[in-house]
Amino acid sequence: MKGNRRDFIKKTAIAGAGLALAASPFGRTFAALASDKKVRLAVIGTGSRGRYLMELLLAQKVNPNYELVAVCDNYGPSLNEAVALAKRYKINPKTYTDYSQLINQSPVDGVIIATPLHQHAHITIDCLNKGIHVLCEKAMARTLDDTKAMYDAHINSGSILLIGHQRLHSNQYINALERIHNGEIGVIGQMKAYWHRNHNWRRDVPDNQPDLERKINWRLYKEYSAGLLTELMSHQLQVANWAMKKYPVSVMATGSIQYYKDGREVPDNMAAIFSYDDGTQFIYDSMTINKAEGCEEHIIGDYATMKLESNNILREDPIKPEPAPGIAQLINDIQNGLFKSAPIGGSSWAAETAVSYNGEEIYKGQDGDGTREEIVHFIDYIQQKSSPEWMTKEGYYTSIWSLLTEKSIESGERITCPDKYLIG
Ligand SMILES: NC(=O)c1ccc[n+]([C@@H]2O[C@H](COP(=O)([O-])OP(=O)(O)OC[C@H]3O[C@@H](n4cnc5c(N)ncnc54)[C@H](O)[C@@H]3O)[C@@H](O)[C@H]2O)c1
User: Fold this and answer.
1) Mutation choice for ligand 1 from 48, 199, 402, CB with most ligand atoms inside 8 A
2) In sequence order, which residues have a C-beta less than 8 Å from that of residue 145 and are 6 or more positions away?
3) Same structural domain, 140 and 15
4) Which protein residue's CA is at the shortest distance from atom 39 of ligand 1?
């Protein structure tokens, strides 16, 4: 197996660049749309993310075969900003403060839900049951039961349910993951990811309205969010599961409010180890006091490591090999007079030296993080009246395992998935 590594690397390096779109799992191009009828869309929750998604839609950077017919938010300033944004694009969607009025009064084919996490489940379920297709922001829901109820509503109604893990739609990630699945990095031995920030994650609350604290800073309170787990880790756990083509069998995690003792209820730092049934581990951590390491996912194989956020592949045996790290260290030691002669086999106590080349770019040409493509695909799926089921499953299990991680932090125990949340 290892003897063929160099040939394999050469072949895959040449083939890799062309893989992404040729074998895209997402199927179709605009030319093949099933219908010319415009898809009628609404956005529910027009806060920071909802307006970003609206902007992508309105700037006509996505499929033009849609119209934005309604927006809804139960907070006046967010709704006003959405209306102002729509006006800039010369459109005048209907406005609602109650989503149930929107779905009962405005004929819509699909909704984009970007409310806080605890408001995802009941809105999604009501929409799906009315035959309205849903793109709901990640993570799916605040509780395990709500996550399962959303999935069941999707299955029972037959309506599309897509969860907002935009990396699933990014050409850069699709390319990298196809190459991983085609064996380019060899056998995955470990995955490592982190999201480090230097920010307290607070948003300003208007001076004279302290009662808005929990509404605006919902991410910091347990009733509404699992904090770093559902808001950040979920993205990277989805990527790890995608790389493995399967889901973890257990998680052990820890977390605490170590730095920002400001009344928040969710950890400001955490670490978790997920195990898969073949013994592979996904090691994850997130913190909010230092961003030196930034955000990264390392998928580590016996041929190479892919660093997905920075779009970089580091081959263990590059085409122009450098001296193996142990040999390099030995030469260095001899030059420094440490040894008179080289001990056979090298020193067992020397720390490994990291590879000293910069690797190669994995993929060229991705613009943005996949969110634009996510919306394009959602509209496309509505027109096709079907979406890839594995993508919904990916969102489902990511949400389930993010919430099980919270249970591990709370109990201090290694957690497995209760049978009632397994969907096969
Ligand atoms: N995919 C990503 O990269 C990404 C990035 C940021 C946020 N998000 C997700 O987007 C969602 C929203 O995050 P945000 O940062 O925009 O939060 P936000 O607080 O800025 O916006 C949420 C909006 O929803 C409104 N809202 C709350 N309950 C509602 C209800 N019942 N009906 C209608 N509107 C309601 C609020 O008034 C607010 O305007 C979250 O699920 C978050 O995880 C995803």
Assistant:
1) 48
2) none
3) yes
4) 47
Atom of ligand 1 nearest to the CA of 52: 16
Look at ligand 1, atom 10, and give the residue with the nearest C-alpha: 114
CA pair distance 285, 273, nearest whole angstrom: 9
Angle at 20 between CA 14 and CA 388, to 5 degrees: 150
Ligand 1, CB cutoff 6 Å, lining residues? 44-50, 72-75, 78, 99, 114-117, 119, 137-138, 164, 166, 231
pLDDT of 375 > 80? The answer is yes
The residue to mutate among 52, 125, 137, having the most atoms of ligand 1 within 8 angstroms of its beta carbon, is 137
Tell me the pLDDT band of 336, cut-offs 50, 70 and 90.
low
Tell me, yes or no, whether 286 and 338 share the same domain. Answer: no
Q: What are phi and psi of 300, to 5 degrees?
A: -110, 115
Atom of ligand 1 nearest to the CA of 97: 33
Inter-residue contact 322 to 288 (CB < 8 Å): no
**Residue 115, amino acid:** T
Q: What is the mean pLDDT of residues 2-27?
A: 39
- pLDDT tens string 198-229: 999 999 999 989 999 999 999 999 999 999 99
Measured by CA distance, the residue closest to atom 30 of ligand 1 is 74
Strands 360-361 and 295-301 come out as unpaired
Domain that holds residue 281: 185-319+359-366+401-421
Note whether residue 272 is domain-resident.
Answer: yes
Residues 107, 67 share a domain: yes
One domain, residues 349 and 413: no
Q: Do residues 225 and 116 lie in contact, with contact meaning Cβ atoms separated by under 8 Å? A: yes
For residues 402-423, average pLDDT: 98
State whether 312 and 351 are in the same domain.
Answer: no
pLDDT: is 165 or 348 the higher one? 165
Same domain, 83 and 209: no
Number of structural domains (the chain) is 3
> Which CATH number characterizes residue 75's domain?
3.40.50.720
Q: What is the mean pLDDT of residues 286-291?
A: 98
Claim to verify: residue 252 and residue 284 sit in the same structural domain: yes
Q: Are residues 229 and 241 in the same domain?
A: yes
- Which of 73, 233, 238, 369 most suits a substitution to test ligand 1, by most atoms within 8 Å of the C-beta? 73
